[in-house]
Structure formats: C-alpha cells, structure tokens
C-alpha cells in the first residue's frame, strides 16, 4: 500500500509530488494523459503573478505570494526558464484608476514587494508601444514569465528521481475504501493508498464524487490565444494587463521566455471541459481587447493559435481541504489563475493537511533538489564547440527555427519521464515551436523517437493517445515483401 496517491500531474499534482518526495513515504502519481502537464498547465498565459489581484485573507492571496517566491528558487535549482520582467496593469480613465488603487492596496495587504502606481508618462517611458489613451498603471516588479510545462516537468522529474512512482495513461475510473485507505481503479491496474491528493484539475469534482464526496462542481472556461513570431517578441517588455473584471484578469500581451509574444485569453464557458478548439469568435474577441492595450500588433506574424480550459467552481477561492465525506482525501480543487503561481505553496498546504490526517513526514537524508539539462542555443560558442567535440550529436541541428540539436532530443528521450510523442519532445526542448511549427523537423523527431525508444514509427504519436502520425507502411516501387 502506498502512503499517498496523487491524482493528476499538472502543475499542482507535480508540485505536490515534489513536496512529498522530500519525505520517507511511498508516493504514487496517477496521470490520465500520456505525459505530464498535458492539459491546462500547457495551455495558459505562462505568467507568475505578483499577487495583488486576490482578495486579502483568501487562500489565493496567501498561496500566490508564497508560491512566486518559492518559484524563484525552484526554477533556479531545477533549470527552468523564468524571467522576472514585471507587470503593468493599465488604466484608461478615472474609473480604472480607482480600480488600480484598490489593487495597489490589496497588493500591500498581501505583501507583494515593490508595487507602485505610475503616471501615464512613466508608463510610456517603460512601454512606448502601449496605447496613448493609457492614463496610469500599477507596476509589480516581481511578476515573471516562465515555461509552464517545463516547470511542471522539472518538479515531476525530480519527484521521480527521489522515489515517487508515476503512472501515465492511468485515469482513475473508480475509488473504493480499502481498510485504512483507498483502492484506486485504473486501466493500468488497481492501487491502494492510505491517503489521496485530488489534483485532477478539470475532473476534480468527478474524482471527489468517486470517493463519495460532494460540495463542488467544475465549470470549464475556455481561453484562446495567439502566439506571435519572435519578430514580435519585444513589442512590449513587461506583462501588459488591463483592469480585471468579472470574467477574470482579461486579455494580456506579454513576452514569453522563448522570445515570442503571447496575446490572450478570451473567456467562454464550455460544457465539455476537454473542448480546446479555437473559434473565430474567440480569436476576434482577443484581437479586439488586445488592441486597447497595444494597438499596433501585427497578426500577420502569428505562428500558432491555441486554447486552454480553466477550472472554476462555485467558490471564488481555491479549495484546499480534507473532504468532509472522505477522511484522508485532500482536495486541491478549483485551481484556476493564479494556480501556476501558487502551485508550490498549495503543495505545502496539502502536506500540512496530510500531517493532520496522520501522515508521518520524516525528511530524507539525501533529497535531490537540483536538475540540469542541455539547452544548446543558450551556450557560448566555446561551450558549444566543447560539447560537440564530446558528443557530435549536439552538432546536428534538427529544428532550425529554435536551433535544437539531435543531442538535446536524444537527451530528452533518456530523462526520468520518457517522452513518447512529438509534442512531448517539443515541450522538453522546443523542437517544433518555431515559425514553421515542426514542418521541417517533425519527421526527423519522429524518426529519433522511433530509433531511440525502439518502437515502430507507426506507434509514434503527435501528442495524445490516438494521434498517430503514420497510419500504414507503403511498399516502394521495385520493393518486394514475402
């Protein structure tokens, strides 16, 4: 029997697994998809929010500020791309300026460091491309941008290195009581655990109900985005927000850690929480809203659209608590923005709750809290030459747009959580994220996955189960098969 089973391995589940891996307890992570961070975590704004937006005294406020402080240390130790570029919330008149004052006071109450109110002239000195109609802004220097999937992957990999067991493609289909704990049913077999952490994201209500729980239901809200080419990456230098409203933080314009520009999201309620289609209406909504902040965005330079679904419940705050109906069952539910920012602090609270339920947490004597990976494009010419001399695979560029080498892809295929799809490679080392979106490198990445993992090219996926790239072998002219 496991001590703890974590259901879900997005950013919250990965953070919980990482935190639990500090201790001498047996931990199992069950993820429904064939890779970690493959739902909401991979499809969001990639922002670590400073913490002025949540209402003081809420779990959101507490975990947001604590979480971004922890993220700074974690990203450095685990080799995750993160840049502290600061954010600006723009005002367009007196009403917005009153709202900025409210956010400013909330930020002070929440302990957000360095926030200040700027005049229109100060805003335009920082960001000359924002609208001339801006009258003021709230500046938060500790806001940061991050690679969200790399962040979650780093936490999950480190948890695995420290002894956590991860089962991918293992959705939980049923939960029964089993002695002093629970039995979890999955297509990969049944597993028993004394305690459960429910980090199932968009399905957290259904997982809770499997254990006999009740009290909240999920409403999915879809947000659509544009990703712009690197030629647009410096149109703005900070995360640019508008004043939030009842639909959320609104449409933002922001650089990404990979040098692109992200614009979005929209906010549309959806019945199907798996519905991530882009729509003409949603994308037009994004363009119209973004033009208010940055009027001259060049959408001819858009290289990709995507959408993600956020997890809302009837409660305005995060749900971080032991289930009232299922003892030892910890809900981490309704984790929407600022969930990415708050994740490591949410994980700390989950472990505190488990201690209250009786989990013994004895720290490991040799906990591994560092991780390194090779990012060839970040190396100096001298470092590149030395690496190529040591391993010629790093001298073969596979993805021209992002300068990703064969060595990096093969390295990714030998990491603790093995990627088995082309998009999983993309999330680990950027191959396919550039202007051509894998048009050039995709076939070569497929070939490397097949060769390195010794699987048929027919079994290599683009992303999730069922997305096979090749459907059959064809006989070439002059070729004979017996």
Describe this structure in words.
The protein is an alpha+beta fold and 482 residues long. The chain is 30% helix and 22% strand. The chain contains twelve helices and 22 strands. The strands form five sheets. Strands 1, 2, 9, 10, 11, 12, 19 and 20 form an eight-stranded mixed beta sheet that branches. Strands 13, 15, 16, 17 and 18 form a five-stranded antiparallel beta sheet that branches. Strands 6-7-5-14 form a four-stranded mixed beta sheet. A hairpin with a 2-residue loop joins strand 10 (174-178) and strand 11. Helix 1 packs parallel to helix 5 (148-161). The protein is globular, with a radius of gyration of 23 Å. It starts with a strand and ends in a 29-residue tail after the last helix. 50% of the residues are buried. The model has no long low-confidence stretch (mean pLDDT 96).
β-sheet strand percentage: 15-25%
Give the proportion of residues in helices. Answer: 25-40%
- Tell me, briefly, the overall form: globular
Query: Span between N and C termini?
Result: 51 Å
Assembly type of the chains comes to single chain
Average predicted confidence as pLDDT? 96
Q: Which structural class is indicated by helix and strand composition?
A: alpha+beta
- Treating each run of at least 4 consecutive H or I residues as one helix, how many helices? 12
Low-confidence regions:
none
Question: Nearest-angstrom radius of gyration?
Answer: 23 Å
Tally of strands: 22
């Amino acid at each position: 029997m496991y001590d703890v089973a974590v259901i879900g391995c997005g950013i919250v589940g990965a953070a919980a697994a990482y935190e639990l891996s500090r201790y001498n307890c047996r931990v199992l992570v069950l993820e429904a998809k064939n890779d970690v961070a493959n739902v909401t975590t991979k499809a969001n704004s990639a922002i670590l929010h400073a913490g002025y937006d949540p209402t003081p005294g809420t779990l959101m406020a507490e975990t947001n500020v604590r979480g971004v402080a922890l993220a700074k240390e974690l990203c450095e130790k685990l080799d995750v791309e993160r840049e502290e570029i600061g954010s600006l919330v723009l005002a367009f008149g007196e009403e917005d300026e009153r709202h900025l004052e409210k956010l400013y006071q909330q930020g002070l109450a929440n302990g957000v460091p360095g926030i200040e109110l700027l005049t229109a002239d100060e805003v335009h000195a920082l960001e000359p491309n924002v609208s001339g109609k801006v009258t003021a802004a709230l500046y938060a220097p500790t806001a940061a941008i991050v690679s969200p999937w790399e962040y979650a992957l780093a936490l999950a990999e480190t948890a695995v290195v420290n002894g956590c067991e991860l089962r991918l493609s293992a959705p939980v289909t049923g939960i029964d009581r089993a002695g002093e704990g629970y039995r979890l049913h999955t297509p990969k077999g049944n597993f028993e655990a004394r305690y459960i952490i429910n980090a199932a994201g968009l399905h957290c209500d259904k997982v809770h109900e499997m254990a006999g729980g009740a009290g909240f239901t999920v409403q999915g809200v879809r947000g659509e985005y544009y990703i712009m080419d690197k030629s647009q990456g410096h149109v703005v230098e900070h995360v640019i927000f508008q004043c939030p409203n009842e639909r959320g933080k609104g449409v933002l314009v922001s650089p990404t850690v990979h040098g692109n520009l992200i614009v979005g999201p929209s906010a549309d309620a959806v019945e199907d929480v798996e519905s991530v289609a882009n729509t003409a209406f949603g994308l037009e909504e994004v363009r119209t809203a973004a033009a208010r902040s940055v009027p001259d965005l060049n959408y001819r330079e858009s290289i990709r659209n995507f959408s993600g679904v956020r997890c809302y419940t009837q409660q305005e705050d995060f749900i971080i608590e032991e289930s009232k109906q299922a003892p030892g069952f910890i809900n981490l539910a309704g984790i929407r923005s600022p969930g990415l920012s708050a994740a490591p602090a949410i994980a700390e609270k989950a472990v505190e709750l488990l201690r209250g339920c009786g989990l013994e947490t004895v720290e490991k004597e040799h906990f591994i809290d560092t991780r390194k990976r090779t990012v060839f494009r970040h190396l100096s010419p001298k470092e590149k030459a030395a690496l190529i001399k040591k391993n010629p695979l790093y001298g073969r560029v596979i993805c021209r747009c992002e300068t990703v080498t064969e060595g990096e892809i093969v390295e990714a295929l030998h990491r603790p959580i093995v990627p088995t799809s082309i998009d999983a490679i993309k999330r680990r080392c950027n191959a396919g994220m550039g202007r051509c979106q894998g048009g050039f490198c995709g076939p070569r990445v497929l070939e490397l996955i097949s060769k390195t993992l010794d699987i048929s090219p027919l079994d290599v996926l683009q992303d999730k189960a069922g997305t096979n790239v090749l459907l059959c072998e064809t006989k070439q002219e002059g070729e004979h098969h017996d």
